[in-house]
Amino acid sequence: MTERVVRRYQDVKPGWKCEDRQYVEFTVNNPVTIVGFGLYGNSNPKSKLPVMVRIELINLTTKKAYGKNEATFDRDSDETIFRVNLSEPTQITPGDKYRAIAHFYDGLTTITYYGIGGCKICATDEVTFNFIKGYKKTVEEGQIPEIYYSL
User: Boundaries of each PHR domain copy (predicted)?
Assistant: First the structure.
């Protein structure tokens, strides 16, 4: 299977105060297998502690959680986006509503990059992602810039 990526934002800025939990809700029009998520990294050059995060995918229609996984990434890196895979790839159902969640363990001290110019609809020839809402009730800006998936 060829892995693909959907990118939600048109641009990126520094300075997002990443509180405990960041999320985005979405639906798809065709079955896809979610592999993981891209998360924005640290934008505070003074902080040297690693960022610890737990990700999960929740089917809001059935209330079932999938693929919880924990990861740590280094704040010293110049990388803007860090990839965190689910513990195992998860097939999702068209029409069901899903929430991708990133729990930041040190949220009070994490200042990250964040996406701006977010798209409500991201379409390819094979699948359309419809982003419904995110943290602070908007899909126009925030965390979780990428979703990694296969057909």
Answer: 8-150
Dist CA 56 CA 69 (whole Å): 7
The answer to whether 111 and 7 have CB atoms below 8 angstroms apart is: no
- Taking only the tens place, the pLDDT of each residue in 107-127 is 545 778 889 999 999 998 899
Alpha-carbon gap, residue 129 to 104, rounded angstroms: 25
DSSP-derived secondary structure letter, 127:
-
Instruction: Identify which of 105, 83, 96 has the alpha carbon closest to the alpha carbon of residue 149.
Output: 83
Q: Distance from CA of residue 28 to its chain's centroid?
A: 15
Non-local (6+) Cβ contacts of 124 within 8 A are 4, 6
- The CATH number of the structural domain formed by 3-150 is 2.60.120.820
Q: Which of 129, 131, 102, 83 is nearest to 16 (CA)?
A: 102
Cβ count near 139 (within 10 Å): 22
Q: At 69, list the tokens.
A: 């996984």
Residue 32, phi then psi, degrees to nearest 5: -140, 160
Q: Each residue of 63-107: pLDDT tens digit?
A: 999 999 998 876 555 567 889 999 999 999 999 999 999 988 765
Q: Which two tokens stand for residue 128?
A: 């359309």
